[in-house]
Write a structure and sequence with these properties.
A 5-stranded mixed β-sheet has the order 3-2-1-4-5, sandwiched between helices. The protein has a domain of 152 residues: Ribonuclease H-like superfamily/Ribonuclease H (Nucleotidyltransferase, domain 5). The protein is globular, with a radius of gyration of 22 Å. The protein has 7 helices and 5 strands. The longest helix has 17 residues. 29% of the residues lie in helices and 12% in strands. It has 274 residues and is of the alpha/beta class.
Length: 274
């Protein structure tokens, strides 16, 4: 993780440090343990003002092992199982929460995508006012538009060939690959791969601070919870004035300055698959 992301994670644990301080600490050599015994859209921009107002939906491919690198013909080009998985994702714009995903062995049809969106709406118990997507064949078709019209959902499409027109979900996909799938040996079994993605989505929604949300997590914004980085903080400097400001966000000191603390790090569900 970068300096900003590390600072945001520590802030949620009660230790508020600036990005410059984090950068300096990262460059330091580890201290030996002590032995003392101490322990965009159709020409109009759509802005979400509440959860379930605007949802994004998009598709991406995830190579299986060396799937896309197979050099021999005719297997150099097919983007389908056993060379890759297709993953469809729905993201809530306001909270950046991943609402659901589904895995396909081949490029899905519009009917398959509509079935997935219908299941996601039923599970969430809410439907969005807008769907933002690209002009892929699954979305830019009469069937998808009619499906949205029956449910009183307005589809909005990103500009063709314009980078950033569906930037919110593109950033999520980039994070999913950078922090998730590219650190895994992608399995051939769909159930195993689904379990891996479930763990990533659970971590992303519940624990990973989001810079666009000022260090809050998607679940905190979606469910209206009190952000962990707003709780009283630890202050390890014994002479630090209690009224002085700290690294953002500004919070009060828990207890007295100079207190010792232990930072415990666990894996999601106790599992490490990287």
């Amino acid at each position: 993780m970068g300096k900003l992301k590390i600072a945001e994670v520590l802030a949620r644990a009660g230790l508020h440090l600036g990005t410059t301080t984090v950068g300096q600490i990262v460059k330091e050599h580890p201290v030996p343990p002590q032995t003392s015994g101490k322990s965009k859209t159709d020409e109009r921009h759509v802005t979400a003002d509440r959860p379930n107002h605007v949802w994004h939906v998009d598709l991406t491919t995830v190579p299986i092992s060396g799937g896309f690198w197979a050099p021999w013909s005719p297997f150099a080009l097919p983007q389908s199982w056993p060379f890759c998985w297709w993953v469809a994702i729905v993201l809530d714009h306001f909270s950046r929460r991943a609402m659901g995903f589904v895995i396909f062995t081949d490029k899905p049809t519009s009917a398959a995508i509509r079935a997935f969106l219908g299941r996601t709406i039923r599970i969430a118990g809410a439907r969005p006012k807008y769907f933002i997507c690209d002009k892929g064949v699954q979305f830019w078709c009469a069937g998808f538009k009619a499906w949205c019209r029956r449910r009183k959902i307005k589809p909005r499409y990103g500009a063709v060939g314009k980078h950033g027109s569906i930037a919110v979900i593109e950033r999520f996909i980039g994070t999913m690959k950078r922090e998730g799938t590219r650190r895994l040996l992608i399995p051939m079994r769909r159930t195993t791969f689904r379990d891996d993605l479930k763990l990533f989505v659970a971590r992303y929604n519940e624990y990973r601070p989001n810079t666009a949300l000022n260090g809050c997590t998607p679940n905190e914004i979606y469910h209206g919870l009190s952000p962990a980085n707003r709780r009283p903080r630890c202050e390890p400097r014994p002479r630090w004035p209690r009224k002085s400001q700290c690294a953002t966000p500004q919070t009060l000191i828990a207890g007295q300055p100079g207190g010792e603390f232990t930072l415990k790090i666990d894996f999601v569900e106790g599992i490490c698959r990287s």
